[in-house]
Amino acid sequence: MLARPTLLRAVVVASLAATSALAGATAPLAAPSAVSSSPGSASSSRALATVHARAAGRTSSLAVARPAAVRAGDVLVAAVAVRASGRLGLRPPPGWRLVRRDASRSATGSLSQALYVRVAGAGEPRRYAWRWHGRHAAAAAVIAYRGIDRARPLAGHGGRAARQTSSAVAPSIRAGTAEPVVVAFFAGSGGRALAAPSGLAVRYRAAVGTIRRGLALAGGDAAGASSGATGRRVARLRSGSRAATIGQVLALRPAGSGSAPVPAPPALAGGRWFSDASPLNTPIPAGAAVDPSSSAMTAGMEYAAAQKGFSVSVKRWSVPVYYADRTTPRTSVALDAPWTIPAHQLLDVPFPADARPDPAGDMHMAVIDRDSGCFYEYYKLFRREDGGWQARWANRGALDGPGIHAAALSTRASGFANLAGLIRPEELERGSIDHALVFGHPFTKAGGPVLPATDSDGRPESETGAAVGLTLPAGALPIPEGARVQLDPGLDLDSLGLAPWQRVIARALQVYGMYLADTAGTTSLTAVNPQSFASNPYLPFWGDEAYAYLPPALLRHMRVLQLGPQFAPTRELASSACGEMR
Asked: DSSP character for 150?
């Protein structure tokens, strides 16, 4: 039997209007004294929770004291509620990862609440400060738990925002582990108190401020079901009042729960997609030649990142990857590319029932057949009203091949398969990416690709940046698709203050580099879209974000390796044992 996780301490801080009745007060929360024995409690010890309120008026920051008795390896969760819309940018303290944020609005104004997670280190700061622009009423709570899986603490999350309602509802979710620790968070606009949520051991509950500027908040925890279901949780506003409300839930994974790891890719040599001989899987040799125009080309990369960030596309402009086997339903996909194409259908291919494309404009998707070792890739894929599937273009290939279509016609502009060079969650989990990445860039050179790319969408308007609304700076040069760019292998990564996941990516860029594969709005890498997993596997790394970001300063240390000659692509449809196209 697993040891039951322990609640250490909850700390709540509220910064509110000057009319607060709790000005300068410090008071215990309304929590049951017998929490340790309550059936719904996730704690094996008494809950020791405190609330602090101060009459500081509206503020642009909020500092929350570290819960007492925290030690390295404890998992901290935080809820930050602000009387502002969800568009207000919140800057968390270092080391806190955003899980989700929900927002609502009512007659009394806007309300948003964000949830964060952190694994405590050896030297935790005494306070954690959140900051934002402008002055807004705000409240925050930090709760510490012991006995949670520190490597993958989150097993799921959910939220619900409502307008002009008398209750805050945290929806039921199915966590990715049995018997999760369920932590529910509630917030309401106005100063009307939230009644104690039923079925939870209450960790904090307070109402402070005025109806128009105050906040009501509450939170608690319980043990989840063996099925992983968290159950619907409700906190009602007292006196029948109505306001904007938010209910949220986190499912924490107990240590030693034996939960399933992130699914690994099909077993190939080295555990990688594509062959060991693929340019994607070949390390850069020591002393590799650098192109004479490298500095001018990387100048465009630095400029783009300074404008829009050095990003990782996660939930948008990425590639969902689904797995199939001999039992997966099969279908044919119609193709409607407006250019001259040699095929109008991809016939009889595996298509999982839950598969759906990326929601952004390219609508990419890929399917890997574990039994046949084939992959299927799609561009601008959508479901027709008659239930059939249609794509602008698709292709197929062997997963033990090079990952680059020799005669072009991939679903990427460059001939690289859309599986090529993706960042995968199981790689971040193990701390190693053993292949090259691919990237997009605003300034792609016209005149054709360089090997190993076999195609290009570089054209005059992409050379200047006009295609994506940027302007190539003076002295900078566009880059041909297929170029290989390397992070200086002599750079000391430990000196840069990188987050662990950023260091994993940076190391891959030193050893394998990244290939330019597409024109994009900024210098950007791509991850497997989390929608193809039962729950978001990136929560322990960068939270529930559509985009993750690397330090733009890394691009100052990039170099373009010696380029081959550009060439005019030959576009032909190759035959394949993985499926027929006609």
From this structure: S
**Tokens in use for 418?**
């859309």
Tokens representing 501? Answer: 């996941």
Bridging pattern class, strands 109-119 and 127-136: unpaired
Enumerate the β-bridge partners of residue 103. 112
Cis peptide before 478 (omega within 30 of 0): no
Q: Residue 413: which residues within 8 A CB-CB, separation 6 or more?
A: 455, 456, 457, 481, 517, 518, 519
Does pLDDT of 392 surpass 90? yes
- β-pairing, 181-189 with 215-223? antiparallel
Q: Which of 208, 184, 202, 183 is nearest to 62 (CA)?
A: 208
Rounded to the nearest angstrom, the gap between the alpha carbon of residue 190 and the centroid of all alpha carbons in its chain is: 32
- Which of the pair, 437 or 28, is modelled with greater confidence? 437
Q: 151 — alpha (psi -120 to 50), left (phi > 0) or beta?
A: alpha
pLDDT in tens, 187-242: 888 756 788 787 888 888 777 666 666 788 888 898 877 777 788 899 888 766 78
Q: What is the CA radius of gyration of the chain?
A: 26
What is the Cα–Cα distance from 252 to 143, expressed in whole angstroms? 12
d(CA 132, CA 92): 9
Euclidean distance between CA atoms 341 and 395, whole angstroms: 12
Mean pLDDT, the chain, whole residue set? 83
Q: What's the distance, CA 201 to chain centroid?
A: 30
Largest distance between two CA atoms of the chain: 76
Across 447-474, average pLDDT: 93
E-strand stretches of 172-264? 181-189, 201-208, 215-223, 233-236, 243-252
Q: What is the mean pLDDT of residues 365-386?
A: 94
Specify the 3-state DSSP secondary structure of 211. coil
Q: How many residues does the chain have?
A: 582
The one-character DSSP state at 243 is E
| Residue pair 11/66 in contact by the 8 Å Cβ criterion | yes
Side-chain half-sphere exposure of 30, counting CA atoms within 13 A:
10
Owner of token pair 């007492």: 68
Cα–Cα distance for residue pair 184/222, rounded to 1 Å: 9
Q: Residues 46-85, buried b or exposed e (16+ Cβ, 10 A)?
A: ebbbbbbbbbbebbeebbbbbbeebeeebbbbbbbbbbbe
pTM: 0.61
Q: What residue ranges in 401-444 does DSSP mark as E strands?
A: 437-441
39-86 pLDDT, tens digit each: 334 443 323 333 333 323 578 888 888 887 888 888 989 999 888 887
Rounded to the nearest 10 degrees, how much is the dihedral formed by the CA atoms of 324, 532, 2, 256? 90
Contact 427, 385 (CB under 8 A): no
- The pLDDT, as a whole number, for residue 192 is 66
